[in-house]
Queue: 4 jobs
Job 1
Amino acid sequence: MGNRSLNKNVSYYMIVAASLFLMFFGGIIIPPFASEITQTGMQILCIFVSMVILWSTVGGIVWPSILGIIALGLTEYTTVGNAITAAIGQSTIWQVMMCLTLASAIAQSGAGELVARWALSRKAMQGRPLLFSFIFLFILRMISAVSNPLGMILLGWAIIEGVANVLDQDLSEKYFRCMTVFVVVTCVNGDMIIPFKTWLTAMWNAFGEMMGSELNFMTYLAIVFIFGTLTELACVLFIKLAKIDVSFMKDMDNESLAKGSTRLNSRQTAYFLAMLASIIIGLSGYIFPTTNILCRISKTLTMAGVFSVAVAVLILLRDKDGRPMLDWKKTMAPGAFWGSFFIIAAAIPLSSALISESTGFSVWLTSVLGPTFSSSSTLRIYLLVMVCATLLTNIASNAGIGMMLLPIVLPVADAAGANKFVVGICCIMSACFGLMTPGGSAAAALIFGSKDQLKVSVKDIMGYSAVFILFYFVVGAIVFPILDKII
């Protein structure tokens, strides 16, 4: 055991040392590999690549992001002071903090679990295992959209275990194993719906900067919602086509899933209303005409301001015992999600630097990949984006890969005559599906780390994740080219 720990530490420090050398010195000693790329561009590329390696391999998020910001400030592109200002002086950071406060409050209060158990205990699903499976996944996705997806994954697994216990079945049954993986898939899909509370915020903002205009969030929302629903239907269809035994669920008493009261208390109700009201008001700028009062509020406050007002009001209000409706310290203390904050803080300025004129990457990528894409059909363009982004995000950090690919695929797709907005959504979605390896995403790391307790194998995780990814490729190859023409 001692030798194993020693070897693990040696590997850790070797990766750290190599990555830090690349981060601070790689761009100085490695010459540009193309005439269009500058030495400054090589420095920024080395910083970004080293951060992706560190995010994906040694389990570090905060310290690689901090050092990455410092390294950026040591290049000719900017100064350390300006790099820090660019990192923490973003409204995005504030927005994520406010949104995560509400999401954490919902998760900690038990409101998410209560709603899920209530919905799953309805008589309409009695004796209908496939309907039960679909509704179960759908509800987890919807609550993940306004809550913490990792928390909903844990909740989903707890409900699966509860179902197994009620039916006196073992978790090693094939149905429970595949549903355990599909819970991760559906919660990841749910996390994409509102890209204002996780690392997706970094990609969304970088996407908007590259497009040079405010993005139509409602179109994005419709696309990811449809894809998510199709995913859940595909999961249920797979259970049927694979002839996975669900006969033991025919006599399940769904009401046993409802524990105690199924009514939200005043505090839980306030959290849900605050989250839903924030989302509705924030989206009003995309829904209503500019003369509408909600649209004016949305445009004036922005999404960050709307969530800020909601949090402030909840802290201001008191319950019947005179306590704040939302206790900030209690809500944020257990897990302040600093990983999300620091990824966003480091990724946005580095991504902007990577596509700046001083690096030369945009010119080089367009000249190299432009001819390939320009001679390709729209279908091939989307297939290339889906396959490249999904494969890469399964061997590296989804945040890092997504932020690295956006500045590559958008100018190339534009040169090829494809719809940049749809291509960007395709890239963002594909970068979220790091499900097959532990380094692909936090959700993947969670299931790989819990596989023994869940009684799933690596083969189960990779196999059922591959089923979803193949389905995504097939559906994406049909849907994205259509959206390219109509949006």
Job 2
Amino acid sequence: MSTTNTARTDLTVDAGATSLLRFATAGSVDDGKSTLVGRLLHDSKSVLADQLEAVEHASRNRGQEAPDLALLTDGLRAEREQGITIDVAYRYFATPRRRFILADTPGHVQYTRNMVTGASTAELAVVLVDARNGVVEQTRRHAAVAALLRVPHVVLAVNKMDLVGYQESVFAPIAEEFTAYAGSLGVPEITAIPISALAGDNVVTPSATMDWYGGPTVLEHLETVPVVADPSDDPARFPVQYVIRPQTSEHPDYRGYAGQIASGVLHVGDAVTVLPSGRTSTIEGIDALGQSVDVAWAPQSVTLRLADDLDISRGDLIAPTAATPSVTQDVEATVCHVADRPLTVGQRVLLKHTTRTVKALVKEIPSRLTLDDLSQHPAPGELVANDIGRIVVRTAAPLALDAYADSRRTGSFLLIDPTDGTTLTAGMAGTAFAEAAADPAPEGAADDEGWDF
């Protein structure tokens, strides 16, 4: 995996004060994750006076002398009462060097699925561990989710170093164990930092009590990790969201296809293919913010005009003819099951991929991942909440699907319950870090309701 700060200046923003980093935090219960986030916001002077006053008031009501910085993120009443994080909390803050969108995700095993939501768009994940407990099963789960979601940068924050005497001998084996585990999952960059979120050591300011550590603080690393990439490195993908046909006297023949560029760069004159139909045309014009432009790149929202009148609708994908994704009805993927109800073989689902939603059947569940040793438990029969496993899905209509390893946007999908719209499973097309799935199961008998394909 490569990142660059020297991308073409006409396509990217310089990785300075205006750059944006999306990152997620995760950790087991009572590892101090909410305190870390609160300390990060407080010490970087990203907390408003009235917010801090409210936290101080709530802390006094709970009999605490010092303000409980965890309350800056644990906003739900149930979270405050139980002392745990339940929902994903998004926080926006900035320093002179960079802007940040922080997704504070729950640590309890019951809410691991919420980490999938928070980390799905993250460029960095901060995984917290308690220095007294080291790497536990939930730590491995968080590392596995980060690896599955192709988060390119992972920070291991070894917290509560103040409770172990700030000893390097405690920090070093934890960092070594986690680095080896996450590396075996394919995480490309791992940075371990010893901290005390309660005391503020190595969160924003360097610790005066851990002179044996010469690396960056958490904030320093967040400010300097490279995240700006050249969009021209990736093949262009344009999921059609809406067809614009004003049919007015001013624009009697206007036909435009609106959406957000998922990846890559599009130019006027490019030869493109519309999928899944396979029809071809040329980009005749690109409209952005009410003006015609010659070039557009991800993640801009634009309207494309093609040289030919083609049958195109919401859910179709426009891609360069020279670099089209594969079109398939047999989707093999690694998934994280997020619903309370299990996912079973033969289950009818809806598969949502970019702007396209199609009927589908779960044809096979070849394996479930065992987090302790990363082995595959064969043919589990079902996946329950928080399980990570391999599935094979047959769709009613072809999908233009990239491998998730190649594109996080066009390689991801959701499985949805068709009866009530509940999200069941988050899927990543391809093998991810798991072993290759077995061949898809043979098709079953015909279904008179149109769910067997």
Job 3
Amino acid sequence: MTTHTQHAEQLSTTTLLRFATAGSVDDGKSTLVGRLLHDSKSVLTDQLEAVEHASRSRGQEAPDLALLTDGLRAEREQGITIDVAYRYFATPRRRFILADTPGHVQYTRNMVTGASTAELAVVLVDARNGVVEQTRRHAAVAALLRVPHVVLAVNKMDLVDYAEPVFAAIAEEFTAYAASLGVPEITAIPISALAGDNVVEPSAHMDWYGGPTVLEHLETVPVSHDLTACHARFPVQYVIRPQTAEHPDYRGYAGQIAAGAFRVGEAVTVLPSGRTSTIAGIDALGESVDIAWAPQSVTIRLADDIDISRGDLIAPAADAPAVTQDVEATVCHVADQPLAVGQRVLLKHTTRTVKAIVKDIPSRLTLDDLSQHPAPGQLVANDIGRVVVRTAEPLALDAYADSRRTGSFLLIDPADGTTLTAGMAGASFAAAAEPGAAAADDAGWDF
């Protein structure tokens, strides 16, 4: 019993890291993930036995660790990854949620899904092929989605005789490219997922490399879970009015704090109405607290009776976002049917869903060389482009660069409710790292 309790306490004190993996086909991504799970003792015995059995039936001597992640039968048969597979594992130092994303061009939308909540992206490169078109595409998606940490895992080092110059050249080329897109931190690690070099255990074959293994880096990379440093935002999910004899006048606004922290006595603004009030109380898990922070789910009570409903946003009066009906954003189109100028859609932002119309699609981005195609007229599946959307009601949107939670939105088909497009408000890429980079025109790409 004690060990269970200790384990629970240990997990509650460890941090959580969400990370995504990306790489071209046959770069060994699934093998890397399988090796991580296997060598960190995160695989159950029966799972390992099933993998060993499947590997033997294929005539393979060693267990094929890629089978630990490729869950769909089509993935196993073709030896490719199709959908985003989420894996949960933990070490004594940290818990992990891993989004294993596909490498093919036609699954760009799947990578966007997996990387949208990730704090770190592992981009795999085959040491024999170096930085290829798909590698640049993955770096660009990571930069667009503002993933704060990128790991370049140069795999299959065993097939290039563990040569340092091969690794150094690939690392230099990728780092220069990713830095030009504004990726804030890039770590390059030479590995062999098949042999287990530098994945969990340090490699005996690469004494020239003095950096961390992949797992060591994942365990120690600083996680910016401190959403309390962000602009405080509270989207209202539900209004609580019991109107009982016990609570005749209780009126609370329930929801999850998207970012920042809220304190009792703080002056707040309710958007989009712009009405102001003061926080009279905060209830968390049935108890009154003086302060609450993201991502806690709480009920906030205000000093004044204001007309507030689901979809409204409560923010500090001194730091409220601007309200707008014209949304300019970078989007990734995820639906099979195209998105066209003039199309009527629903825009879902936090807990608010409003009617909208696509006013303009100024450009489509070619991820291979980051060139832009002006006025494409429409976006098809996996396209990334700029859109201008006019909403029927005002929205309190932050720039995606400032807040991934309140700067993102979805465009939805009003006819059947399917998700059409994932959007990121504001400029596309972070400003290029080199000094003197010209500020881009608002309608174009910011890189």
Job 4
Amino acid sequence: MTEAVMLAPTRYVTIKLASQLIGLTVKAIESKIARGAWIEGRQFRRQDGNIYVDLRGVEQWVEKGTA
């Protein structure tokens, strides 16, 4: 018998992983960032030339409908 393993993502994930977790395409996430619907420091952060999506920030954005 194989044990089930549950993984919980960290708070900050790459756009590619965020896409899989929240059901938006990579292009949709990039578009939200580019047009300012997602705000740096709230829904995403930049570090070492990479963009990391803040899953807590996105959750709040969905629940409150605010950017």
